[in-house]
Each structure stands twice: as structure tokens, then as C-alpha cells.
Amino acid sequence: MKPHEHGAVVVPGGARFTVWAPTMQRVAVRAAGRDHPLAPKGRGWFEGEVKGLADGAEYALVVDGGQVRPDPASRRQPEGVHGPSALFDPARHAWTDGGWRGIPLEALVFYELHVGTFTEEGTLDAAAARLPDLVELGTTCVELMPLQPFAGTRNWGYDGVSLRAVHEGYGGPAALQRFVDRAHALGLAVCLDVVYNHLGPEGNYLTEVGPYLTARHRSMWGDGIDYDGRRSGPVRRLVVGTAVQWVRDFHVDALRLDATHAIEDGSPRHLVTDICDEVRAAAAAANRTVHVIAEDERNDRKVLEPPPAGWGCSAVWADDLHHALHAFLTGERDTFLADFGGAGELRRALAEGWSWQGEVSRHQGRPRGTTSRGLRPARFVTCLQNHDQVGNRPRGERIASLVPWDALYPASALVLLGSGTPLLFMGEEYGEARPFQYFTSHSDPALAKGVSEGRKKEFISAAADVPDPQDPATFERSRLSHRRDGRHGHLREHYRRLLALRRRHLPAIAARFPDVEVDGTAFTLRREELVVRANLGAAPAGGLAPWAVVIEEAAREKPDPLDPPHVLTTGDGRGAAP
Questions:
Q1: Could you tell me if 322 and 384 are in contact, meaning their C-beta atoms sit under 8 angstroms apart?
Q2: What is the pLDDT of residues 329-338, one digit of tens each?
Q3: CATH of domain 7-92
Q4: Is 528 a catalytic residue?
Q5: Which CATH architecture has domain 105-196+253-261+272-278+288-494?
Q6: How far apart, in whole angstroms, are the C-alpha atoms of residue 184 and residue 300?
Q7: What 3-state DSSP class applies to 293?
Q8: 280: alpha, beta or left, given left = phi > 0 and alpha = psi -120 to 50?
């Protein structure tokens, strides 16, 4: 028997509703001014059709005791996480991307952005209007931080509660379809950051509908999601079905699974494996390439290995290169950075993908990681900064505010022309000076107070300077400036040239990790046709001036006259003349 599919679906003449509520005796849909009982179908499932409803019609669930709640599988929450749900018919969008087939993993260059702070308007439509800039820069995939509805108007997105919906302040689900369609027309892939390891604290009504959570597992907000209990099948079906819908109904090209190390699942077959298999099946049915990429801090190759030994993800967020670069450049050694700071950790991250491959971590006091032997460079997503590494600082400073400006040139060269699939965090390419701070807008007074006080306790030594997440000014400070003047424009051009070089030498970069040589603060990355020499120090090293970058290409028989010249940054912030 085909498994039940959660949620509401628009059908001819009305809508069909399916709800899993095994602890309830009765479930009804409140719509069009009256309650419509759903019929029990066994094993906790309720189902029924309501005539006369169409796209946009609002509804709510009525469960035992007369409680009125949003649909756990809602596709729209037009009045926020506490309000009624609404029907969304994905078939209404007239797609224009029929010839789109996706982008191979090796060709991906991620550009991570937060919709609310990327533009002044803070919407998907406004972000779509800026996509040509990202094409011209040379990125190939836009990664959107989580879009699921959250309490209030301001949030990073990791407090989402309606897994299948899109925050109305960003434009709702129809705006996401328009965004993806526009991106594909420009040759850009789209990646969604999705959160399946926990649910947000406000507006989460799942426990009032059924046993979706369990005290056997814990999240930062209490009980965790039940992926491995006696009645966990429908819970897994909800989440896996959510992942599939982004591919099927929104044509997305990649999913970034947030913190897979925090997904507690003791089942013989891990949830992530199910997601990978079903997402790929949906992609094959649409004749497209879709990637499932895990954020996992353990350096564990099982994330990448095929089943049954592994999960089968396309790639993994590999933070070791960020940590090694950051510690080397800043001298910071707090918490996890205690494992980094030396040239050895940076050399290994560049040459092998992970710095730690089973050695005893100084920070954790136990072995960390597994070997990367045999894994292709593209399977490691690397960065100079991302939303976590910026926003989880007490004041949200970006790398451009922490190191000498000229240090951005060699550091970015090592990431973009080094090993792995590179990721840029919005504004990085021009050295955004504004911070990206942690912001929320919880409406529950006790929760809002707890979040504000908790943030200060987290950074007790700098508590006086920690911005209040609930203060609207914290959000406003985090908006991009999109500067192109002076040194900002020059840095952006440096990024554009690096990415053009990456495209030109992609076969060599994708084929294997580079050979890496270290001479003091100078690092040399060698491949057959491309040599990158970068000095990460304020003094001469390895025959290079302070902060210099020199890139050497093997001669080609027929050079492309449209290619940019070799990149040579002299270390004075201006760079060599073209």
C-alpha cells in the first residue's frame, strides 16, 4: 500500500486533507466557515476532501477538545506561525526552465545569502533582481538560508516550525518558485538550507496533533524529533516528503541539511539515507541533477559513503579549512580553534580536505575524524566565512573586520583555487564591513527574554557588547551595503578573476587535491597547469611580498582572448595593473 502523504492537496473541485494524529479520536478541518470531519483511515491517519476550496483558501485543524491548530504539513502560513494554514497549489506556476538539467558538483560555487538582509526589501523577489550580479561575479549556485516560517519578522531561519512552508515576509512559496525560475534562466542553481535536526520553540504545535517528538532525544528547545521510535514511520515520511517537495514542486538543485550530526536516529537505515535516495529518485524523474549536502562537524566519511555503510550524500560542509585559515590569520585559539593555528593544520586541509582524520583533538580530548583518502575534492564544501562563523561571534564581525585588508587577497585565493567546492558568504566578495549578527523577533515575552539573556551568558566575558537579538537594530545593522567603491570594488574584481581562473582550470582542480608546500607564512598549491602562491603573513616569505598572491598558468596553444589576465596582487591593496 502506498504510504500516506501528509498535508493538503488542491484537487479538482476542492482540496484533500491528510493528517497523522494517532492520539486523537476526531480530527476536522475548519474552512469556509464550518468544520469538516476527516475520516479515520487506520493507524492514526485521518483523511477527507472539502469541496469548494482553492489555492489561497485558509484552513485549520480542529482536534480533540476543540483545539484549533495549524496543519503540521502546512504549505502556507499567511498570518504567521500562530495563524491558520492556507492551501498552496504549486501547479499554478508556469515554469520556463524546461531545458534546465542542473549543475555538476565539480562546477558548483555557492553564494550563501540570508533573504531578509540581502536587500533593503528583504524579499525573494528583491533578491532575484540581484541575481545577475552573482552571475557576473562567477558564482554558480545560490544557497538560501532557511525559508521556513518562524515567529515574528526577523530570524536567521533556524527557528522554523512549518517544514513545508515559506516565510510570508519573504514572499511565500510562490515567490520561491519565481526565484528559482529566474535563477535557472540565468544559469544559476539554487540550494535550500533545510533544518531537520530540531524545530523552533515558538509556533511548534506538533505535540498537540500527534507524537512527533520524543523525550528520548533532546534538542536545544526540549524534546527532539522522533525518527526511530515505534511509531516514527509517519514522522520520517513527513520530513522525507518535505525534502522531495522542494525538488518536485520548486525545482531546487541542492539541499543543505543543517547539522546532521545532531539528527538523532538509531534506526538501521538513517533518515539522511532516505532523504538522499528519495531526492535522487525525484531528480531522476525530472531528468535533473540534484545534490544532497550535509553539514556535519565530525569529519566522518560515512556521510559520503554509499549505503549500506554510509548515508550517500553528495558532499559535506568541511569547516576545517575555514578554522585553519581563521586561526592562522587572526591568532584566535578559543574553543574549537584550539585545534588550529599552525601551518600544518592549514596545509593538510588544503591538501586532503580535512585537517583532523582520527588524531586526538586538543579541544575535544578524543579522536576526531576519519581518513579522506579516495574522496574527490569537490565533495568538501569549503569557505573563508559563512553565516555560522560570522554570526556566532559575540558581535558578528566578518573576516574583513578582523584581519588586515590585504590579507583577504591571499586567503580568498587559497579557498577559491585550492581544494574543495567553494562557498562565499554574502558580501564577502567586496569586503562587507557591516556585521552579520544573531537576530530574532519572538512574540512570547518569556522566550524573548530568555533568548536575550542567554545570548549574553553565552559570551559572558563580552556580555556588555553583545547585541540584543530581539532589538530591531541588530537586524538592521546586518543588512548588506553592496559597496562597489574604492577598495571594495577592487576586492570584488579580485574575486571575479579568481572564479574565472577556477572555471578555466576546473578539470585540473576537480581531478585531485593540490600538492601543498609551506615556507613560513607562504603556501604554494601545485597542479600540473596551475600554481597558486600565497603569502598569509605581514612579512616577506617564500620569495613573496607581504600578503601577495602570484598565480602561474601553463601555456596554452590557443588562449582565449576574453580570459582575464593572470592575477597578481602586490600586497599593497591595489594589485598589479591588468
A1: yes
A2: 999 999 999 9
A3: 2.60.40.10
A4: no
A5: Alpha-Beta Barrel (3.20)
A6: 33
A7: strand
A8: alpha
Q: Enter the pTM of the model.
A: 0.96
Instruction: Give residue 459's pLDDT.
Output: 87
Give Cβ neighbours of residue 448 (< 8 Å, ≥ 6 apart).
440, 442, 470
Band (pLDDT 50/70/90 cuts) for residue 556 is low
Backbone angles phi, psi at 295, to 5 degrees: -95, 115
The Cα–Cα gap between 504 and 485 comes to: 28
Tell which residue, 521, 568, 525, has the closest CA to residue 549.
568
Q: What is the dihedral of CA 312, 317, 320, 321, to 10 degrees?
A: 120
* Distance from C-alpha of 434 to C-alpha of 577, rounded to nearest angstrom: 29
One-letter identity of residue 408: L
Distances (CA, A) of 576 to 8, 418, 490, 533: 60, 21, 11, 15
Q: Report the distance separating Cα 403 and Cα 405, nearest Å.
A: 6
Between CA 450 and CA 145 the distance in angstroms is 24
Q: What angle do CA 212, 214, 218 make, to 5 degrees?
A: 120
In the DSSP assignment, the letter for residue 361 is P
pLDDT tens digit string along 141-153? 999 999 999 999 9
Residue 494: pLDDT over 50: yes
Which residue intervals of 341-462 are DSSP H helices? 343-352, 387-391, 408-416, 445-458
Amino acid at 78: P
pLDDT confidence bin for 207, thresholds 50/70/90:
confident
Identify which of 217, 216, 220, 263 has the alpha carbon closest to the alpha carbon of residue 240.
263
Q: By C-alpha distance, which of 30, 63, 59 is closest to 44?
A: 63
Q: How far is CA 230 from the centre of its chain?
A: 31
Angstrom distance (rounded) from CA 143 to CA 191: 4
Q: In Å, how far are 122, 333, 390 from 441, measured between CA atoms?
A: 15, 32, 20
pLDDT digits (tens, 9 = 90+) for 417-454: 998 999 999 999 999 999 999 999 999 999 999 999 99
Catalytic residue among 258, 264, 345, 429: 258
Domain ranges in the chain with CATH number 3.20.20.80: 105-196+253-261+272-278+288-494
Q: What confidence category does residue 574 fall into, taking pLDDT thresholds of 50, 70 and 90?
A: very low
Label residue 1 by pLDDT band (50, 70, 90). very low
- Single out the catalytic residue among 71, 193, 208, 295: 295
User: Catalytic site residue 125?
Assistant: no
DSSP state of 541: B
- CATH 2.60.40.10 domain residues, the chain: 7-92
Give the pLDDT band of residue 217 (cuts 50, 70, 90). Answer: very high
Beta-sheet pairing, 45-51 with 58-62: unpaired
Contact between 221 and 242 under an 8 Å Cβ cutoff? The reply is: no
At residue 294, the 3 state secondary structure works out as strand
Q: What is the pLDDT of residue 149?
A: 97
Closest CA to 8 of 164, 202, 233: 164
Residues 80-95 pLDDT 10s: 999 999 999 999 999 9
